Amino acid sequence: MSRINGARRGCKDVFNAYLVENASYDGFLEIPTIEYGIYKPRKLISFSKCLSSTDYECWIHFYEDDVAFERIWNNPKKYLPVLKKYAGVITPDFSLYRDMPLVMQFWNIYRSRAIGSWLQNSGVNVITNIRFGDKRTYKCSCMGVSKGGTISIGTHGCVKIKKEKEYLKEGIEYIVPFLQPKIIIIYGTAPDDIFEKYRECGIEILQFDSEFAISRKEDDHGSR
Hints:
Blueprint: E1 25-26, E2 31-32, E3 44-46, H1 47-50, E4 59-61, H2 70-74, H3 76-83, E5 88-90, H4 102-121, E6 126-129, H5 138-142, E7 150-154, H6 162-179, E8 183-187, H7 192-200, E9 204-208, H8 211-222
Parallel strand pairs: 3-4, 4-5, 5-6, 6-7, 7-8, 8-9
Antiparallel strand pairs: 1-2
């Protein structure tokens, strides 16, 4: 039986098969799995900033434009020594635009899980980022994620527009009962009308302001 998760002899590894050489898979799409973990980050730092920072107590996140971190997919091994210095990594937040072909949305979920699985197998603490588009992606967005641990969700840009907020609320209403997390990290705002009921159920919500929101606060403070 041929391997489905390893590089072929004599072939250039153009799709990073080595990332999933030791992975197990979930679902009919064979999304790489990330093992259970309960983590409570105190500070977050973006991938772009972590490359020049020494604040190693931070957890690295990828809640920024895809162009800023596509390089981690193109050359994961280059960045592993840096990532291992930090407290942990929240898996990449590759975009899932609803007008993207569905297969591309699935591909971006796969890529995020593949990097997360590889980082975990390389000794890095990993929290799974959950990114979804519309209801067609809800099930896939949960594939490869252990139940009962810590997950992370980016809400920046998803709450000010009514339709975007509706998609956010609907998606979370699917993934939370499915994954039963004990801790949810929110990068961005955490509106009570979406998250309060989960707090009441005993789920710990750890909210972190986006870098954009922090910069706005600093500008407002400086203008006084």
